[in-house]
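Q: Sequence in, structure out?
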Amino acid sequence: MRWAAHLPGGPRQPVARVSSGSAPRSGQIEWGRVLTKLKPDYVAIQRRWKDSRPPERLIAHYELERRLADRLRAASREERFRLYAEVYSELFNSLPDHPQKAAVGSRPNRVAKQVRALKPLMGRGVYLEIGCGDASLPFALSGTTREVLGLDVTDALVDFAAAPTNFRFLKTDGVDIPLADNSVDLAHSDQLIEHLHMEDAEAQLREIHRVLRPGGHYVCTTPSGVTGPHDISVFFDEVATGMHMLEYDYRSLRTLMIQAGFRRIEFPLVVGGYWLATPPYRLLYGIERALQWLPARLRRNQLAGVLMGITAVATK
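A: Exactly. Output:
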């Protein structure tokens, strides 16, 4: 994260730089610079996240992502519509070792789990994937419903030559959905809402509610802020400060969905694509409140990850 070198007429300000060579001993403010500081237990976090990059690459990733995320947070709504595609393009083009690039090989297994989780809600109607990426999930679901739609800011990753005949791509500015009212039976997004500015998340939820038929469902999977952060800032900060604009908990996401007009919100526990149970919201909220009193290291264990890994099913 690079700060302004100076302000007009004012003193020099700290500039974030990373020294080359061994892992930086950072956090101390020196004249003209402040060094970024990894958490003392960053190696343990790397093992948990299966991220083997050296310290200097974690820092380079963090500083770039913070700079891009700060641009989004400070931008107006009109500016954000242009910036979403721009900042993510810069992020991935600048980081050849970004973890999402290394995870490409695990994509088929993830899609199989998502198909298993969504099939109980599928009918012979219209399915909408919000933030479809390469559209591999809509492709995989094409045989179980009448039409599959993929919505995203770009179709650059979609292999149209391999697309099923009942697939259609829809381009969005990041919020708007170019569909008629009451035209979708099931909508789904995976790890998307946390990447949206909160104003845009609210607007997108209203759009999803608008295009769903009465009785239709929106399945939203997102990481919990209680067990976070879940972006690169996990190695540096106690809350998400990277491209996760906001990591939600059960209460905040439920409130947002009710405000968007959904009449019922449930939070099933889904593991490996299997629906284990649907605990009452009050129980999940109570567990969430209790966890928030614990030290961060105790909130980030495997059991808490299962209980707090948010899958919301919102019904119109």
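The radius of gyration is 21 Å.
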